[in-house]
Amino acid sequence: MDRRYRKANQEFCRVSLEDSLYPLLGVYEKLPLPLKRGAGRLYRMLPQGFRLGRHYADFVALTESGNCGTPEELWDHQLIELRRVLQHAGLSCPFYKKRFETSGFDPKRLDSPEDLRRCPLLEKQDLVGFREDLVSTRIPTSQRLYMTTGGSTGVPVGFYLHHGISRPKEQAFLEALWGRAGYTPGARLVVIRGHVVNPRSQGRIASYDATRDWLMLSSYHLTENRLPEYLDEIERFRPDFLHAYPSAALQLAEYLERSGQCWRTPIKAILCGSERLTIPQKRLLERVFRCRIYRWYGHSERVVLAGEGRISESFYFWPQYGYVEFGPPDKEGLREVIGTSFHNLAMPLIRYRTGDYVRVADPGLDGPAEFPWPAATEIAGREQEFLVSAAGRKISLTAFNMHDAIFDHLYAVQFFQEQPGVAEFRYVPSPAFHKSRLVSIEAGIRRKLGDDFKIALREVGETEKTARGKHRWLVSRLG
Length: 479
Description:
By secondary structure, the chain is an alpha/beta fold. The protein has 17 helices and 20 strands.
């Protein structure tokens, strides 16, 4: 398994059909609906491996081979991957080359987890200040995919993924996680995860993705008077799964209970990620939707990935995806997730402090583990935070997250709100930031918020932080 997979990664990737067609997405979106449906249907008929590229099959095999390994076998695999990534970074990434030399860390001498702890931690501010020095000189520009995220902290971070590698990897591992809840490739999904169908407050709420046979519902129109439209769209589509932010699923569930209605569309499961979903909230969703509620944890940087088991509600960190460590416990017993990416050779992230905190599973208290992997019983952070519009729309800040360069050269961003429909966007600029970019930043924010919002931009020296000293996306005085 390791030899075949290493060989596949040593060959620089051939771009998949999906990646090749991505620049034409704007043209496809402008096609009349009948043409879009026809083109999408033809595209779906192509084999999944052909659409996602040759590495997709390698990652599928990797997910299948790792479920039955012993802890010793898993560590042997992780050690191979760690040595490969660390040596690659030390030879081709100026940032790591200098840092390894300064700290006296030698990747070739890595034999145990204790050896890895001698390697310095990577902070989010390192990605802001030294991003280009973190990039590998061995990977051509054409194989770098630029992304940004505000994450759960409100600190904008830009980074590169490995074009042709990161997307098929994520698809293969997510499908394997969802498979524990009954998912199979080709299933029909209704998705409520930040898709902007129409920026107008009274705009349409649904669009059809014919390339995947998914119904995309807006995350920005979940108001009391429009929730019946969501239920009608879902019922007409007859999906196999609902793929939703927890906050969106909870709004539907609470509406059904509040109005004395029952859920009428049988589905296999609700797939919930990107926001924290507590056990009491999960029980509410199970009661209303009468199906499995499946939770997982990941992030845009794609360093580590964890999901519930087939029967367990603990989050198991996939050892073939990346290497996870946990920081020291705080006064509440929570520990920070620290990860090392395995397959992103364009910009390796080594001992990266994610800013997310978990409660690590204790076999003595939480019972036997379903997998011999690191596990957590609770993911802290990723709260369900909302901006509220003048019309009463709740806009999840998870859905608001940008994935382009709009927040580049801003050290921190934060929304402040004390009345519906009015919000202040606070930002902390870096020396490289130019105020001429405020026009495009405001335009991007308005596209997300819609036409029933007043927004003001204000430069600040520092944003408000949590008790743990973390930045946060939102300060709300709405109660």
